[in-house]
## 1
Amino acid sequence: MVETKINLSIIQFADTSEPLFTGKELILSSKNFIFAKNGSGKSTLSDAIVNQKSSDFDVQVFKGFEQLIGENENLDAFSLAVDAGEKEEEIRKLNKKLEEKRSNYTQSNQKITKPENGEENLFSKLEASKNAHEEQEHKLDKFYIGSARNIKTSNPQLVTSSLNYNKNHFKDEINQASLLQDVEINQLKQVLKSESKNISTINFEVIDFNKYLSAVNNIISSKVEERVKIKRLDNQEKINFAKTGLHIHEKGQVCAFCGNEITDNTFNELESYFSADEVKALQNRIKKGKEQIKNVQDKLDDLELTAEGFYPNLIGNATDEIEKIKIAKGGQ
């Protein structure tokens, strides 16, 4: 005969810390019948037996026929099993969710299929959008063809090959387009109307200004050793003054500065001073350089610059550049 013991000292209601039963243990045999009033702890004792002995025995607790019998309304039948009622409840919940899914599917399907009564839904809106898109595509295509034809016949100079120009070329060039102001539009129209211009070539040798600068610096840094020393000519201003006096006076005349008669010795002394070979060579070099610079300047002054030979859209820039040149020449 199989017996087992249940520890009663650890069994208690959830809302109290006191043991539910007064005894310390309960001995169970292979068959046991437990009777008690409602609320006295039969279910609590059954749960305690399950918790304490499920590892050693196959414990099954009977808590009424509701958990053993599950009714299936669809099959018009019932099943007898442990937790059958709970399973049937789960089945009913799942069936309800399934019906909701089916209902949602039906509603969604009605929105995306062609309506029979002509009502508006997602399908009809999609079809309307497709038709509107096709209509706009047709308008654009018509615009491309017309624009390409207009350029080809009216303004062939705008394209490289007007004979092969078509709507596809026009579409590719749209990305290169930019918004123009009215003034720019008028200028470009004038360019289209203007005839091909041949700008006259200005024949002018390239001026090496570095060469002139180097020559001037070389002259400035040159030193001339005079053959005759005149002590009273001890600075450049006096030398220049004496040179000018020699140029404007003749022998026997009275000096315009001091009022004394210029002696032959003084005249000969100055002529000898300023006629030295080194001085003459430097003076000739300076004179020649000045003539060359003046010659170049005269050529520049003789240049006639005009904006008339430029296309309409370039006249403004050309005029500005010509004005800058005139200002620069005026500041010489």
Note: The first strand starts at residue 4 and ends at 7.
## 2
Amino acid sequence: IAYTMWTSGSTGEPKTVQVPHCCIVPNVLHLREIFNITPEDVICGPCPLTFDPIVIQIFLALTSGATLLLPSDVIGETPSEIVKLVTAHKVSVLQATPSFFFTIRADHLKKSLLSQDTSLRILAMRGEECPPVSVLKRWKGNGNATQLFNVYGITEVSCFATCQKIDLGTNGAVPLGNPLDGTILEVRKDSGEVIEEGIGTLFVGGTDRRCLVGNETWQDVDPVLLRDSGDRVKKCGNDFTFLYRNDSSFQYNGRKVRGDPATAILLRSPSVETCRTHFSKGDRMLYIFIKLSPGCVAEDALPSLTKSIETECLCPFEIVAFSSLPLTRHGKLDLKALLKTTSEKMNHAAAYNRLLSTLWKKFTTRTTDSIDPQENFLQQGGSTLRASTICQEMEFATKHPLPLLAGKVLHETFGAVTAYLNESVEGTGPRNFGLKG
């Protein structure tokens, strides 16, 4: 055994992982080759010694004679201080999470880490989903020659499994990349069948890429062990593209819903630098946290952003804009800290009104996108059955009985229906963010 590491707990309960030499050494040697590490390099990565990517950084430096820069935990949790360190010590190889870069304004990245005269020649993003190419393009200054990489892995098969040099001349999502030495990748259907093309769960491992998780012994694990990554991917030829975490979907009113379609739409907007979703079972609400681009004012940007995803969100949702996003010690977005500062910004009544409008438009025959407060549901092509569906959806969303809603939908105006809904749910606010669910 080379070392023992704890998983971060970001995708489940923390557990110990015992990593043998035969599992981690190929990682170090292959990444050293891909990054072309030399004794002239200065390697840095803002993460604590309890986070497994630090092992790669340490041995990339030790096996090549390069310089290793290890920031203190206090500095490592402050991205602006890391930028100063990188500049002062002429760091050439930097590993960090996408969330780390999202805490720095894109125009500042262009002038510092990704400027024309930066010392940084390799920037490797790991630990979270890689941002799409459209976002990465906003980070790079004119004349910048830094090479960007997407490095993917799971702690249970420490440390990395794939590596992809990012081509900014393409569009869309960044592939996970080619498997690193000794690594086997399989995509399996929910039934367990291995597929050569299509969408399924990614399994990672190999003969030598075996670790002991929790209380496992070598007698407990298969000679060729593949671990369930928990990630849904699309395989096309030799390309693997991350889609979403299997546990990121949620059940809402008997149907499975995901937040990533809305996220994809928002990230295409130049107004949005980053986006993260969280579904609260207690509130039956999808919270969408965004960081706006420099110069964007929330009051001006949020109406159009909200409208752009109305048809993609099959449940009540709220978009909350932040000027900065909190990070964990591992450099990942700190969802718990984010939710603690969010309650005063919530407006559930507005979310319920949006859902009502979406359902009203869906179940009527319309020639315009706007709803006249004086219009009548039946006159616009609605029916008794569809009115019943609206009532069931709104009662489920609000967790309130709405005994008069059906009659008002069928016989009164949209304005009267909205007024009744607002009166019935007045004072409704966040109750339970449901972090464990």
Note: Residues 350-427 form a domain with the Non-ribosomal Peptide Synthetase Peptidyl Carrier Protein; Chain A fold (CATH 1.10.1200.10).
## 3
Amino acid sequence: MRHNRTPPLKVVVRQGLDIVRGMAYLHSMGFIHRDLKSDNLLIAAEKVIKIADFGVARIEVQTEGMTPEIGTYRWMAPRVVKFSL
């Protein structure tokens, strides 16, 4: 049975930092995830967050010619949605 309890602030902050550090690492390696959302975040051992689903990820070679409309609209930044309309 799943309990809907709010996790402690310390856990939430640590998990947020896991996401930020993971994305920073991806970007430092030249990757763009393009579909980061809660469905693509996995909780591993010790409640560590792992980023998953790189199906639409791109290697950041250039910004021209990349299609911004890849991803989940509900989770896109407003500037990306505006650009793709």
Note: The beta strands are 31-32, 41-43, 49-51, 58-59.
## 4
Amino acid sequence: MADQNHWWIVAGADESHRKINPFGHACLFARKATPDSQNFDVYTVIDWEALVILPKHIAFKGDNGNYLSAQSMDGHPYLQFSATDPTDPKVENEVFIAGDQSVRIKSTHTQNFRRRNTSPDNSINNWISADSNDTANKNSDKHQRRQCRCSSSQPGQQQFLQEVD
């Protein structure tokens, strides 16, 4: 937190200083020692080059060359990299962007969202199930509300979804 001797400083520029007059394009101002209660005077810098827009329908291909598909064992849905045909209906997923900008993925086969599946004793917590019908993304279990961010090493290259705490 800021104290009496520290200030929040925000700087902005429309263009790189190398291209235009160094005194007419930039803005710098200091505000109170603490941001306002809604953080309206605090900004987040976004690297637009790093943003990835996912298509509405996606499939995931594993290191084994197979596609992630919805399966069922003893009446419990789960996901497995076992399908060899990318047009298999069990492979298709739909992407939803939640209001908090987290990515939610819904199996078009099960018509349910994915969630991280944890065992009651937390001994097994790495399964991803496609069995959540929580459409509001408000499940109180933090493991079921994990966000994903998408990144790419190069534009047009493979995309990677990473769980974010």
Note: The longest strand covers residues 76-83.
